[in-house]
Amino acid sequence: MATNIQQPSHVFASAAFFQNPYPLYEQLRAESPIYKGSAFKYPGWYVTGYDEAVAIFKNKAVFQNRMPLPETTKRYERLRKLQQEMMLFKNAYDHKRLRGLVGKAFHAQMIEEYRPYIEETVHELLDEISRKKQMDVVMDFAFPLASLVIAKILGVPRKDQERFRAWAMCFIQTIDLTRSREDMMQGNKQAALLGHYFQSLIAEKRQTPQDDLISRLIDEEEISDEELLATCVLLVIAGHETTVNLISNAVLSLLQHESQLLLLKKDPTFIRGAIEETLRFESPTQMVARVAVSDIEVNGNHIKEGAQLYVLLGAVNRDPAKFSEPHQFDIARTSNHHLAFGYGSHFCIGAALARVEAEVAVQVLLEKADQLELATAEPRWRRLIGFRALESCPLYFEHTITK
Ligand code: HEM
Where do transmembrane segments lie in this chain (predicted)? Predict the structure, then answer.
C-alpha cells in the first residue's frame, strides 16, 4: 500500500502525538480507515473508521480478544497467568460465563443504588479540597472518588487506595503499546504482589463474608479460584484508571470550551450530554486490540489469519463520516453513538458506573464552585497510546463550605 506518512512508528512515539493524537489519526484515516502500519514495534491494521470498527467488533467469530503477552512467555509468567484469566482476554463460552457472573453487579439499576454514596463522597472531597484553594483534578478529586466507589462495590479496604493506584498505573503500562522491557518486568513483579494481596483478601472473605461483590463471587460455583483473582484485579484496575480519566477529561474539556461550560451552568440538564461528549471527544480508552483468527476481507483489505488489529477508538469517535464537526466539543450534540465503551460482546461492564460517577462529580463541582479556573495553559498528558490520561490538571478552586 502506498503511504504518505513518514515512519508512523516514530510519529506515534513523538511528544506531539501524546499531547494531541488527533492530527495523526486524521492522516491515517485519509490514507485508509484500516491502515496497515506499525506503532513502535507492533505491526498490524490500525483502524480509524467508524463503520470499519463496528464491522470488526460485530464479527466476534473472526476478530477475537487475546492477552497482549504470548501464551508461552516464561519471562513474565506471573503477569501472563493473571491476564489469561481475565474476561477481557477471553472469548466464546468462557467469556460469556464470566461476564454473566460479574455483569449483574454493574447493571444500571444496581449502580443507581450507589448514587447517594457517590454524591456524599463528592461533597466530602470538595469540602476537603476547598481548604487548599487549589487542586489537581486527577489526584485530589477524580482518583479518590473512583477509588472509594470501586472499593465500596468490591469490598476492598479504603486504606489501600494508594497501592491500587500504583498497581493500576503499572498494569496499564504493560498492556499499552508504549510498554518497555522494564515496564513488563515491573508488571510481572507487581502481578505477584497483587496476587498475594487478593489471595489473602479472598481467604478473609471466605471466612467472614460481607455484603460486597467479592463475597458474592466467592459463592459462585462457576468461577475458578484463578478467575476470581483475575476478576478482582481487572475490576480494581478498570475502576481506578479509566473513570479517573473520564472525570478529569470532562473538567478539562469544559474549562477549555467556555461556551459549553456556560451552557451547562445555565442548564444543568446538559450534564448527560457533557459526559457523552467527553467520552467521544477525549475517549479515556483510545485503543482496543483484536486478532483475526482466519483470513478475511474488510473494506477491500485482505486481512490474514493471525494479523493484529488495533481499533483506535479516539479516532473512530472523530470520524467525520459518522460525526458532524467531529473536532468540536458540543455538549448538545444529538445521536452521539460513540464507541468509547467498545461495542458488542466485550462492551464495557462498568459503563453505567463510570457515567454516574462522572455526572455527579462534574455537576456537583460546578454547583459548588465560586471559582474554577485552569492553573496551567496546557496540562500534560501521559505517554500512552491506548489511554487518554492527564498526568495532572491543576485548577484554582474555591467554594463556600455548606456543611
Ligand atoms: C470511563 C470509564 C471507562 C471506559 C472508557 C471503559 C472502556 C472500556 C472498553 C473500551 C472496553 C472494551 C474492551 C474491548 O472491547 O476489548 C471495556 C471493557 C471492560 N470494562 Fe471498561 N471502561 C470504563 C470504566 C470501567 C469501570 C468503572 C469498570 C469496572 C469497575 C470497567 C470494567 C470493564 C470490564 C470488566 C471490561 C471487560 C468486558 C468484557 O471483556 O466483556 N470499565 N471498558
Answer: none
Q: Is the CB of 235 under 6 A from ligand 1?
A: yes
> Facing residues of 212 across strands?
none
Question: Which domains can be identified in the chain, with CATH numbers?
Answer: 8-397 (1.10.630.10)
Residue among 56, 59, 349, 390 to mutate when testing ligand 1 (max atoms within 8 A of CB): 349
Q: Which atom of ligand 1 is nearest to the CA of 347?
A: 12
Which residues of the chain are modeled with pLDDT < 70? Answer: 1-10, 400-403
Rounded to the nearest 5 degrees, what angle is found at the Cα of 388, between the Cα atoms of 55 and 86? 65
pLDDT on residue 39: 75
The single-letter DSSP state of residue 390 is: B
**122 touches 145 (CB < 8 A):** yes
Residue 228, pLDDT score: 95
Please name the residues in contact with 74: beta carbons below 8 A apart, sequence gap of 6 or more.
none
Q: Which atom of ligand 1 is nearest to the CA of 236?
A: 30
Cell numbers that stand for 101 in this block: 457472573
Q: Cell numbers of 319, please?
A: 470520524
Count CA atoms within 13 Å of residue 91 on its CB side: 14
Q: How far apart are CA 285 and CA 39, in angstroms?
A: 17
Ligand 1: atom nearest CA of 146 is 27
d(CA 188, CA 175): 12
Assess contact for 285 and 343: CB atoms under 8 A: no
Q: Give the count of beta carbons closer than 10 Å to the beta carbon of residue 339.
A: 24
Spatial strand order in the sheet of 63-64: 34-39, 42-47, 308-312, 287-292, 63-64
- Hey, which residues does 288 pair with through a beta bridge? 311
- Name the residue at shortest CA distance from atom 6 of ligand 1: 341
pLDDT on residue 400? 67
Element (H, E) at 45: strand 42-47
**Taking CA 77 as the corner, what is the angle to CA 73 and CA 80, rounded to the nearest 5 degrees?**
85
- HSE at residue 383, side-chain half, CA atoms within 13 A, is 11
In one letter, which amino acid is 384? L
